[in-house]
Amino acid sequence: MAKAKESDKRRALAEALAPFSIREFRVLWTGQAVSAAGGGMTKVALIFAVLAVDGSVTDIGFVMTAQVLTQVLFTLAGGVWADRMRRQFLMMTSDLIRAAAQLVLAVLLLTDQAQVWHLIVGSAIFGGAQAFFGPASSGLMAEIVPPEQLQRSNALLSFCTSAFTVLSPALAGVVIALWGPGLVLAIDAVTFVVSAVSLGMLRLAPRVVPAPETFLGELRTGWREFIVRPWLWLNIMAHMLQNLAVAAYYVLGPAIADKSLGGPSAWGIIVAGWAAGALTGGLIALKLEPRRPLVVGNLALILTALPLLALAVPTSLWIVVGAAFLSGTATLFLDAVWQASMQQMIPRRFCRGSTPTTG
Questions:
Q1: Of 118, 257, 259, 280, whose CB is crowded by the most CB atoms within 10 A?
Q2: Is the pTM of this model over 0.85?
Q3: What is the DSSP string of 150-201?
Q4: Is there a contact between 84 and 212 (Cβ–Cβ < 8 Å)?
Q5: CA distance 117 to 63
Q6: Closest of 331, 285, 334 to residue 306, by C-alpha
């Protein structure tokens, strides 16, 4: 009996790790893990960069809005170009643009020349580049792994990014306290270069690209494919509303942490708590494949309201960290099943997925 159970465990582990048998997935996984480590630090650094140049909570809102707005505005264009050219090259270009934007901001901060408007412009450029990376990334995963391994592959990618970002926010708090946020942005620029190099190492089969329509024609085609799938647009509308609520968390949370919970290191611990929850959510997605994945995932997403509630009333740091942990668990579980659902249920030529939430 014991041997049978041990055999079952080994079989389950082998199934969960099956995507690693594919070279291209291993290369992609490595590059995205390194990039995620830098991204986990930057989430903390950018906010405290605003405070470092004597910006206000309103200015934090402007910086965050600039990134989100350009990402939303250019996502449709990113989806069109993801169909028109090789996705890995589009992702590499996005990585290099974001590396350049972060490096410029890092230099300005390290030389005490940065102003709030620099951070706003840098964030806008970053968000615009991200709008092209996201759709191409989702389509690229469908090119690399077979359909039956898509949820595991997305879960492993979420797992790795969470694992590498558990310590990043806390480390960012230490680096900011000692050397300022500029060094963190410089590190993030390097991680984007690593990601671009890993993408350049991918060996993919030639992809048949249909004869391009006009740009507006492709947008109409994409819109038609979107409208005829109620499950898709209903989920996207729900995720959009949730993202609007979470935006308040990222604008007000750092200010509350700085004033009432212990400063940059406290916010770093909170973000690390979210990342630890995300790690857990990735593990759950590796093992749990529900029959109604989007129903289960969206029910779990209710937990993302907890950090907002914890910050709304006076409470302790560790209660906020616990709420962030549960939010991260729910978010990454939904992310894995959402990406897999789109990659399986939408024809590959229209597969232009996006992450459902910002955390």
A1: 257
A2: no
A3: HHHHHHHHHHHHHHHHSSHHHHHHHHHHHH-HHHHHHHHHHHHHHHHHHHHT
A4: yes
A5: 8
A6: 331
